[in-house]
Design brief:
0% strand, Arc Repressor Mutant, subunit A, 203 residues, mainly alpha, Tetracycline Repressor, domain 2, single chain, 2 domains
């Protein structure tokens, strides 16, 4: 478990990276944003580049682990329902934690994140849905599916952060589009994308 100092550093880094859209952040700026001494920061951060990679990985793991735990706790087992719930929870997280949301929107579409997604819980649910005959997709299209899921999630989060839609509307629309793209009929996609979401701890 991260210490209080580590959490402060991570939260400050997320804010600065998201605001600037780059890793062009100095140790002094990060220390000031985190409200800690530079010496403390040097003891906890090897380099800004390593910190960025760690923050990106930590966010992905925390997001996936939190959403999976919430869905499992709520007894959501059907792959399309899990996809709809997971997508809407991502958008809700972006709404509840705008710095985190902006970080995801700016840095999610990378080869590294796509590789993680391909081996992570969302794509495991997709594969399960294909095995059960719930999805109708062309074999061998995993990368395209992962890119579609990630792009739709981040577009919905962007719309919320820019004030174009509320998180419920954006999340529902994204989930419905994803389900339709995977072969779920219109009526069921709408039903799954509008079901009540279980409570989730803040990120």
């Amino acid at each position: 478990m991260a210490s209080k100092t580590e959490r402060r550093i991570t939260e400050a880094a997320v804010r600065l990276f998201a605001e600037r859209g780059t890793t062009d952040v100095t140790i002094s700026e990060l220390a000031e944003e985190a409200g800690i001494a530079r010496g403390t920061l040097y003891r906890n951060v090897e380099s800004i580049e390593r910190l960025f990679d760690k923050v990106k990985l930590d966010i992905a793991v925390q997001l996936h682990d939190t959403n999976v735990a919430v869905m499992n706790g709520a007894g959501i087992t059907d792959p399309p329902e899990r996809l709809a719930a997971g997508t809407r929870m991502v958008v809700r997280h972006a709404h509840e934690n705008p710095s985190l949301g902006r970080f995801m929107v700016r840095f999610a579409m990378t080869d590294e994140v796509l590789r993680d997604l391909l081996s992570g819980p969302p794509m495991q649910d997709i594969k399960r849905g294909i095995e059960l005959g719930r999805y109708q997709v062309t074999p061998g299209g995993e990368l395209s599916i992962a890119a579609m899921l990630l792009g739709t999630d981040m577009a919905a989060a962007w719309m919320v952060l820019e004030g174009h839609q509320g998180w419920r509307e954006a999340g529902t629309g994204a989930a419905e589009l994803q389900l339709r793209a995977l072969g779920i009929d219109a009526a069921e996609a709408r039903d799954l994308a509008t079901r009540p979401l279980p409570d989730s701890p803040p990120l």
